[in-house]
Predict the structure.
Amino acid sequence: MPKPKVFVTRLIPEKGLELARQAADIEVWQDPLPPPREVLLEKVKGLDGLLCLLTDKIDATLMDAAGRQLKVISQMAVGYDNVDVAAATQRGIPIGNTPGVLTDTTADFAWTLLMSAARRVVEGDKFTRAGKWKTWGPIDFLGPDVSGATLGIVGFGRIGQGMAKRAAGFDMRVLYYDVQRYPIVEKSLNAEYVDLETLLRESDFVTLHTVLSPETHHLLNNSRFNLMKRSAIIINTARGPVIDPQALYRALSSGAIAYAALDVTEPEPIRMDDPLLTLDNIIIAPHIASASFQTRNKMATMAAANLSAGLTGERLPTCVNPEVYR
Ligand code: DGY
């Protein structure tokens, strides 16, 4: 019997490819950039399974282009705002994602951004390379202490809770806001539940860990930046559009807040003429919070496990739309 047909939309860690090869006849897109939309629409025709990334738009048109035999869509990411889940559910297609395995890696990176922004590491590095380091400066590169400061966590899922754990080591006061409350966890992590406005008013550092949804789109806008301390630092490792980029530019350039450190932008990649790139009080990383060797191997393995299960009609180990099984 011929093996099922699968398209993998980018080169992923070999461990994942190895597993996918055992389950299917796979074609891997070799280009470092994602397949253009029209190419992807061609590639999916007649597929049994698709292993995709957050850079691919997975909508009803694509599912219909694939055809009714498409059994599974497995995304190598925890977030899936690029996927029209309702359209998949309507067509009975399970969608897999990779939760859990990137929690610590992402929280580590959000912490890295927090520390780098507070202590102006990137600015210092640029200064050194530009040959401007002439002496030790008693008032140069000052930034706020992290130890003892107040951390506001927006979105208290796994990664948000990971930030609270890290904050304990720095004797920080921890506030959190989420649409749901976590009474047991908040007690064990010594975190205080507050409304979003209170969190923004009282935090020295605000770190975003929400999903992107219509409710969180541009959650941080002009009026919310105006509530924040002028010394506040904002960190975003969630999704770019959770922040209104024009409002962020206004807040950073007018001094309404002090600093931003982003791993995600709107759009991605950020355009080279984006005014945010003209500012010194911002760090922008290219969406690399989960980029550790170990984590990307685990994400690839997990994505392949979801793919294999879907191809044989088994329940996906981590499925974002389990209602397809009802
Ligand atoms: C995800 O998995 O959603 C991250 O943004 C990338 O690792």
User: Anything to note?
Assistant: Residues 103-284 form a domain with the Rossmann fold fold (CATH 3.40.50.720). The two ends are 29 Å apart (CA to CA). Residues 54, 77-79, 102, 290 surround (2R)-2,3-dihydroxypropanoic acid (CB under 6 Å). The chain has two domains: 5-99+293-325, 103-284.
